[in-house]
Automatic annotation (TrEMBL):
Species: Sphingobacterium gobiense
GO molecular function: glutamate-1-semialdehyde 2,1-aminomutase activity; pyridoxal phosphate binding; transaminase activity
Presence of keyword Phosphoprotein: no
Annotated gene: hemL
Protein known as: Glutamate-1-semialdehyde 2,1-aminomutase
Modified residues (N6-(pyridoxal phosphate)lysine): K271
InterPro entries: 4pyrrol_synth_GluAld_NH2Trfase, Aminotrans_3, Aminotrans_3_PPA_site, PyrdxlP-dep_Trfase, PyrdxlP-dep_Trfase_major, PyrdxlP-dep_Trfase_small
Keyword Ion transport attributed: no
Coiled coil: none
Keywords tagged on the record: Cytoplasm, Isomerase, Porphyrin biosynthesis, Pyridoxal phosphate
Subunit and interaction comment: Homodimer.
Listed Pfam families: Aminotran_3
Length: 434
């Protein structure tokens, strides 16, 4: 085992933070509960690299959990934010920047006609669910085990026992009555979906799925299954919501909708569209969006919605993403990175799979060549991830602090960064399988 990096200053900051915040953090997974050691407190980032409070340097594959597809401190994004800083931080009134970002999105994305900006992915999904309920005048929603949609009440629900059951709350504080409106089933199970629809056909407002489920490993679904979702929802007058908070503008400007060639009814976005600032959005056809206030009866609002700083960052970022070949290059870079690691894994005969789509990847410690459902992941396999994660940190590579989290490659990752990472991953895998 390599020598552990110094975490003296991070540990001091964490001790202090525990006095202020529950668990010392403002979002639970940051607490490093699933991996070795105290969380690293990050001081700064530039391109593909971050530095922590102890001045350890890392090549970053967490990328702020996805938003930083251009890497840290991109000059165009930074300049756009700096320019807006001179003009003011927030007005709570419309600005031309909202038009600009909307135009950029809507002219390059054929799956939505109107959009509403909010401040987080959670808010985007919560609002999309309300729109679906308001439009259909039905209450129940179907979600899938292993998909995360933010922390609003209706969505903090896990599968109950039995094939077709109402969900159970997965957080204290979520009223049972709310959980009863959410039906949770397994991914990739047509029969379960058919049974739910035959039991509750005229009560189901929407089926919600992550564009490509990427919050519980990377559970890439077959095209055929996604088309089945489209068909069954249409047959029963329910809406199909694609939660593209991760996949939106990551797989391409048109996200998973284009990847699967599917027209969802509502699409939610977050992360990348804010260029690293807090933004979320939901979009749909003009007809559906006419139901949102002040045009329609579905209320949704926000003091900081369309915030000028966040809009400026988003515009600068998305302009770069809209350039020809941006996504092709990302994908090629990721594929060659993953192929090289796979070749090593094959040579060593390690029980590891790397699932990948676009510039997203996930290491699964298993022999199973395909994983499409949350319950196909063996929790014990996470022990190996823990060892790999520690070894990677010791070698200057920052992966997300849980084996269920996916990794992201940004345009700032150079071939040199990737080569350095490949060598570190080989060592980390040797350590995990020693
Ligand atoms: N939906 C998906 C698919 C997500 O990945 C996330 C966050 N990881 C959310 C919703 C919630 O977004 P936020 O954390 O910005 O509230």
């Amino acid at each position: 085992m390599e020598q552990d990096i110094s975490r003296v200053k991070s540990a001091e900051l964490f001790e202090k933070a525990k006095n202020y915040f529950p668990g010392g953090v403002n979002s639970p997974v940051r607490a490093f509960k699933s991996v070795y050691g105290t969380p690293l407190f990050i001081e700064r980032g530039d391109k593909a690299r971050i530095w922590d409070a102890d001045d350890n340097e890392f090549i970053d594959y967490c990328c702020s959990w996805g938003p930083l597809i251009l890497g840290h401190n991109h000059d165009k994004v930074r300049d756009a934010v700096a320019q807006q800083l001179d003009k003011g931080l927030s007005f709570g009134a419309p600005t031309r920047l909202e038009n600009e970002l909307a135009e950029l999105i809507l002219t390059n994305n054929s799956y939505i006609e109107k959009i509403r900006f909010v401040s987080s992915g959670t808010e985007a999904v919560m609002s999309a669910i309300r729109l679906a309920r308001g439009y259909t005048k039905r209450d129940k929603i179907i979600k899938f085990e292993g998909c995360y949609h933010g922390h609003s009440d209706s969505l903090l629900v896990k599968a109950g026992s039995g094939l077709v059951t109402f969900g159970e709350t997965s957080s204290a504080g979520v009223p049972k009555a709310f959980a009863e409106e959410t039906i949770v089933i397994s991914l990739n199970d047509k029969q379960a979906l058919e049974e739910v629809f035959s039991s509750f056909s005229d009560q189901i407002a929407a089926v919600i799925i992550e564009g490509i489920p990427a919050n519980n490993g990377l559970l890439i679904q077959d095209k055929d299954y996604i088309h089945f979702l489209r068909q069954i929802t249409q047959e029963h007058g329910a809406l199909l919501i694609f939660d593209e908070v991760i996949t939106g503008f990551r797989l391409g400007f048109e996200g998973a909708a284009r990847y699967y060639d599917i027209q969802p009814d509502i699409i939610t976005y977050g992360k990348i569209i804010g260029g690293g600032m807090p933004v979320g959005a939901y979009g749909a056809s003009k007809e559906l969006m006419a139901h949102i206030s002040p045009d329609g009866g579905v209320y949704q609002a926000g003091t900081l919605s369309g915030n000028p700083i966040a809009m400026s960052a988003g515009i600068a970022a998305l302009r770069i993403l809209a350039e020809p070949d941006f996504y092709t290059k990302q994908e090629e870079k990721t594929r060659s990175f993953i192929d090289t690691i796979r070749a090593y894994i094959d040579r060593r005969n390690y029980a590891v799979q790397i699932f990948t789509v676009g510039s997203i990847f996930w290491f699964a410690f298993t022999d199973q060549k395909s994983i499409k459902r949350a319950d196909e992941i063996d929790p014990l396999s996470m022990e190996k991830y823990k060892v790999m994660h520690r070894s990677l940190l010791n070698q200057g590579i920052y992966f997300g602090p849980s084996g269920y989290e996916v990794g992201f490659i940004s345009s700032a990752h150079t071939q040199e960064d990737l080569n350095q990472t490949i060598e570190a991953i080989k060592t980390a895998l040797d350590t995990a399988f020693a």
